[in-house]
Amino acid sequence: MGRSALRIGQPLAGGTKAESNQRLQIGLFGLGSMVLLIGLATIIGNQADLTQESSVPQAAPTTEPTEAATQRDPLADAGIVPLPVETPDAAQEATVVEDLPDSAMDGAGASGPEDTPNP
After folding, report:
1. What is the C-alpha to C-alpha distance for residues 48 and 42, in angstroms, rounded to an integer?
2. pTM of the predicted protein model
3. DSSP structural state of residue 80
4. Going by C-beta distance under 8 Å and a sequence separation of 6 or more, which residues neighbour residue 23?
5. Is residue 15 helix, strand or coil?
6. How many Cα neighbours within 13 Å face the side chain of 18?
7. CA distances from 20 to 9, 26, 64, 112 (A)
8. pLDDT tens digits in sequence order for the chain, 119 residues long
9. Please, what's the b/e burial string for 71-91 (b: 16 or more CB within 10 A of its CB; e: otherwise)?
10. CA distances from 19 to 7, 31, 39 (A)
């Protein structure tokens, strides 16, 4: 016999026989629990379908329809009145800026010798 032949009493490549049996039991338990879980999900799904089919499609309202209530302004009810809205003319007047005369524009952005203090 060659060296590759298994000898009696030697552990298998995956461990001892007891370890191999334990791995087999865990695998079978896992497969069984998955089958039970899928079966339970199927039962729940079928019961939900039966309940949906047996329910009333469009349940009638238990109260008579009334006209829609008018919207109320809670601030006005409390006596709080918002500020008046400005008209576009007033808003434009507030943002108008007068032009500077041409003489003021000549030296506005430049820092020439007249702007620097004398030592």
Report:
1. 10
2. 0.37
3. -
4. 14
5. strand
6. 1
7. 14, 10, 72, 95
8. 455 555 666 655 667 888 989 999 999 999 999 999 999 999 999 999 998 888 766 666 667 767 777 777 777 778 787 777 766 665 555 666 677 777 766 655 555 555 555 55
9. eeeeeeeeeeeeeeeeeeeee
10. 18, 19, 30
Half-sphere exposure of 52 (CA within 13 A, CB side): 6
Q: Is 32 within 8 Å of 25 (Cβ atoms)? A: no
Two structure tokens written together for 40: 């339970």
Contact between 75 and 82 under an 8 Å Cβ cutoff? The reply is yes
